[in-house]
Design goal:
- The structure is a single chain.
- With 206 residues, the chain is an all-alpha fold.
- It contains 7 helices and no strands.
- The chain has a single domain, classed as Up-down Bundle (Ferritin).
- Helix 2 packs parallel to helix 4, helix 2 packs antiparallel against helix 5 and helix 5 runs antiparallel to helix 6.
- The longest helix has 31 residues.
- The termini are far apart.
- The mean pLDDT is 88.
């Protein structure tokens, strides 16, 4: 138990404070930097900060669900998805630097909240945990669609990152359904959308 606590604490520290690794090339990295006005750069940076917060939360959610999961095969699938989310974390982090932006000041709070939700979802059993995962990924995919509309058209580097993230999130949702996800009640889905709206509006500024 002590060893496991150390491992999980190390994961949290790496997510929050260490540069995230990526094995895939950063999408859009070969495109030249676009000419952006100060307002466009500030807006693009804020959107990418929101996406970075989403990836911090994704790491915590997957970590929490894996902690509570009793099925070795499902735990492996969660860890694989978390690995891809780590790449998203790296891409958004690097893009923030390029846009002269910053990470959210509330990242530790976002992480702890998402970790608690992930553990709680995992405790409900694998079908509900997978249902929560599938719904989360669907909402993230929809959220990324809005960012593709909101990002400056000439900011091809940010758009390439968001497009690849959207593709990966759709794949994660499909995997959860394939593994036996149960459809969440309407009230649960609406609550998740409300919580996501609060998070995104806060992270835009903080």
């Amino acid at each position: 138990m002590a060893d496991q606590l150390v491992i999980e604490f190390d994961k949290a520290l790496r997510t929050l404070f260490a540069p995230a690794p990526t094995t895939r090339e950063v999408p859009g990295s070969k495109h030249p930097e676009a000419e952006l006005s100060d307002d466009e750069r500030t807006h693009a940076s804020a959107l990418m900060r929101i996406n970075h917060v989403g990836e911090v939360c994704a790491q915590a959610l997957y970590q929490g669900q894996a902690i509570a999961c009793q099925n070795p095969d499902l735990r492996l699938a969660l860890q694989q998805a978390a690995s891809e989310e780590t790449e998203h974390l790296a891409w958004t982090e690097r893009r923030l630097v390029e846009l002269r932006g910053r990470k959210s000041l509330l990242n530790p709070l976002w992480y702890l909240g998402a970790l608690a939700i992930g553990i709680g979802a995992g405790k409900l059993g694998d079908p509900w945990s997978l249902g929560f995962l599938a719904e989360t990924e669907r909402q993230v995919e929809a959220h990324l669609d809005t960012h593709l509309s909101d990002l400056p058209g000439q900011d091809v580097k940010s758009r390439a990152i968001v497009e690849q993230m959207r593709s990966d999130e759709a794949s994660h949702a499909a995997t959860a359904v394939r593994l036996g996800a149960r459809e969440l009640p309407t009230a649960a889905r609406m609550t998740m959308r409300l919580a996501s709206r609060i998070m995104t509006r806060t992270a835009y500024y903080l």
